[in-house]
Amino acid sequence: MRSAFLHFYTPTTEEFTTLWRSATFSFDASVLLDLYRFTQASREELLRLFKQHQDRIWLTHQSGLEFSRNRFTIIGEAKKKAADLKKQLENLRNVSAERYQQHPFVSSEVCVEIGRACNDFLTTLQQAEDSYPNYLTNDPILAELLALFEGKVGEPFSKQELTIKYAEIDLRYAAEIPPGYADAKTKDAPRSYGDCILWFQLIDYSKKSKRPVILVTRDLKEDWWLREGGKTLLPHPELRREFKEETGQDFYLYQASQFIEEAKLHRQNVVSEALLAEARAMSEESRQRKEEAKETAVSSANQPDEILSQALESSKTSVTPRLDNLRNLLELLRVRPDVSNDDDTGPDQSA
User: Fold this and answer.
1) What are the φ and ψ backbone dihedral angles of 52, each rounded to 5 degrees?
2) N- to C-terminal Cα distance for the chain?
3) Higher-pLDDT residue of 295, 140
4) Helices (H), 314-347
5) Which residues of 22-46 are buried (b: 16+ CB within 10 A; e: fewer)?
6) In the structure, what pLDDT confidence band is assigned to residue 305 with cuts at 50, 70 and 90?
């Protein structure tokens, strides 16, 4: 029975080993763009892993296009988010000094320590901002990727081919055939076609190369993965079935953290816990943002009074618990890199 429905089941250890040793590794744009979000040490370590597999890596034209289109946005994101966080900290510090000096639950000592904590955050933030590289003028990450994928990027579809593909994608999305139909709910065409164009390019590559493919992605939507009870179980069975029928080869999906763990296992690489922790955190953050996207987001940027009140109400007997809670709340305000899966901007229409 298992052999008739392999796409519904997790591969065995032996099957995973065979796949790892023979597959081509392809990466979507989000994974490449995340290199700008990792710490420097973890980024360099991940690039070393890529290089160790450089004889078996390949990039769809769609992934390369989305990376190129969104790189400047991601680079500018860090400074913008630092400025937003700085403004929030300054607002919180000023509110505590101006409005809570005479609060019946607040001593002047609390206000002073709140101000000191905010100033410490601001100093650390400014130091980090000052040391942050200017990737707009000197981008070693881009240089590494351009060298790594030189001659390893697929061709784009022609305009005539895209017209045919678009019509096919419309039919697929109407029937909710993965991947990409989830994007049709939030994006206009042709921007919503990006995932499916990538998929067609992966299939074409496998047909020509006669090799299985592992796609490394940060996308956690239900049109890429089989999900149940909020948990990601395995790649969408329909993807594995279609890929096998079209190419005769196997297909599998890895998140970045899974790719790192498998590289550690199969090549006996020494992989730091810091790299794994960062990759897992990005996956978890992506999952959380997908859940939060289902609800109406309430901006906290202009609500310093409410935030401070929550910190003060948690403890009215000592300074330290209040400040600890304040720091926890500031962590919630801390603007992290955007890990939504909106790095794609649709297929190239200029080919």
Assistant:
1) -65, -20
2) 45
3) 140
4) 319-333
5) ebbbbbbbbbbbbbbbbeeebbebb
6) low
**What letter would DSSP give residue 7?**
G
How would you label 263-296 residue by residue, b for 16+ Cβ within 10 Å and e otherwise? bbeeeeeebeeebbebbbebbebbbebbeeeeee
Scan for tokens 């000197």, then name that residue.
Answer: 138
- 201-231 pLDDT, tens per residue? 999 999 999 999 999 999 989 999 998 887 8
Cα separation, 8 vs 2, in Å, equals 9
Closest CA to 251 of 6, 29, 65, 56: 6
Of the candidates 231, 199, 272, the residue with the CA atom closest to the CA atom of residue 45? 272
**What does residue 27 show for φ and ψ, rounded to 5 degrees?**
-130, 140
For the whole model, what pTM was predicted? Answer: 0.75
Distance CA 310, CA 225 (A): 38
Per-residue pLDDT tens over the stretch 66-112: 999 999 998 888 777 778 888 888 887 777 666 655 556 556 677 77
Cα–Cα distance for residue pair 181/184, rounded to 1 Å: 5
